[in-house]
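Our preliminary data section would be incomplete without showing what the modeling component actually yields. Below, a chain of 133 amino acids is followed by its predicted structure, encoded as tokens that our downstream tools consume directly.
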Amino acid sequence: MTHSLPVRVYYEDTDLAGIVYYANYLKFIERGRSEWVRAAGIDQMALRDRLDVVFAVRRVEADYLRPARFGEDLTVTTALQDLGGARIVVAQQVLRGEDVLFRAMVTLVCLTGAGQAVRIPPEVRAALQKPAP
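Predicted structure:
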């Protein structure tokens, strides 16, 4: 399932030149992943409370391709790349129209609240593998 999230660039997202500060792309894609999981029908707070399972970022490979600027409307896309026993890999992009501005491959791990690796629960696995509606 590929998910799209619209994002507007606010003044607070930019540096002195009016260009999106590099670290804010990580915030944009975090929002995109959160909404992707939510759109799959997964309630992360309930997952934590019921099964003591949380997701954590393990690795980010990022490419900054073009700048975004104050006032622009962007789209964050998120798509599942790989699903392991305790690992989820997603491909994410930030686009302005058809132009790819930022690209990242993000590896998430499934952990207990104490930080121990745990297998992805079957219902989470099934929800993430569902085809887009």
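The mean pLDDT is 95. The two ends are 8 Å apart (CA to CA). Preliminary results of this kind motivate Aim 1 of the renewal.
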